[in-house]
Amino acid sequence: MSPTPQSEPFIRPYDPTTDDPAIEHIFRETCDEGVKSEPTCTIGYHIWALPYTRLCPETCFVLVSPYTPSALATSVGYILGTPSASHLASAWSSTYLPSLPSTLFPPPPPTSPIPSDKPTLSNPQSLTPSPTSPTTLLRTLHTPSHLLHPSHPSLVAEYPGHFHINVLPPYQGQGWGRELIETWMRAVSALGCRGAHLGMVEGNKAAEGFYGRLGFKRWREVMDGGQSGESGVQRGKGWGTVWLFRGVEGMGEGEERRGEGEEGRGEGGEGRGEEEEGE
Q1: What is the pLDDT of residues 41-72, one digit of tens each?
Q2: Element (H, E) at 88
């Protein structure tokens, strides 16, 4: 029996048997320009997408395009998250990292890049490592404690959930980002999560405005040792991240209906150092 045709996109739980190729495609299409080249993009996918579907699939959701008798449905957006960053970090070390091929994702040197004339997945380098250099991203991949913000433990203690959200451009600006976030918030709330935090690229005013309308606020602490002098801001060489938080109880004032000026690009650029402590 054929499925009933859908008139508009819809949200459903992540399906590990069908959704992985589409999620990787969405990541590659929507990630920041700084991580679109290889091997950076592949490493980034293994930091900001794959660990969540592997370790906490029950709190991952996809936005699915409409389907008709002549076209199959496909995922066009996602929200991938965990109700507990500490549990994710533990499983990342014990389960996820051992599952990755060490020839493709080797631990980088502790302080200096690996010399090479031509970077590859197994031998990345950068003469001046940036937040999006393969060496820096490999260091993030092999340091799951970055999820815990060790210099600012109260952020994770008070708002332990964490997520990544991205929607393909044709489906942005229609309110699906908001609906993905609220779907995810309900799911983690049912698991006992009190609230969530996320990082977005500093300077993306549209994204910060979008999250503000959903009830997110900047974290109260200056997170870069005073370099920025701004609450919730963490700056490093060539990058800056704004850390936001929200309880699971709802969007609060200013709730917008679907289709009213939504910023649909998720965090506004994964791969710009938002997972780095960087202090």
Answers
A1: 999 999 999 999 999 999 999 999 987 555 66
A2: helix 85-91
On the question of a cis peptide bond just before residue 39, with omega within 30 degrees of 0, the verdict is yes
Quick one: DSSP state of residue 150?
A: T
* Three-class secondary structure of residue 208 per DSSP: helix
Amino acid at 187: A
Whether the per-residue pLDDT at 142 is higher than 50: the answer is yes
pTM strictly above 0.85: no
- CA-to-CA separations, 174 to 10, 76, 210, 259, in angstroms, rounded: 12, 13, 12, 4
Tell me how far apart the alpha carbons of residues 30 and 239 are, in angstroms, rounded to a whole number.
Answer: 18
The DSSP bridge partners found for residue 162 are 82, 197
Q: CA-CA distance, 30 to 165, in Å (whole number)?
A: 10
Compute the distance between CA of residue 179 and CA of residue 10 in angstroms, rounded to an integer: 10
The structure tokens listed for 231 are 């609450």
Calculated CA dihedral for residues 218, 255, 185, 266, nearest 10 degrees: -60
Is the pLDDT confidence value at 85 over 50?
A: yes
Return the pLDDT at 241: 86
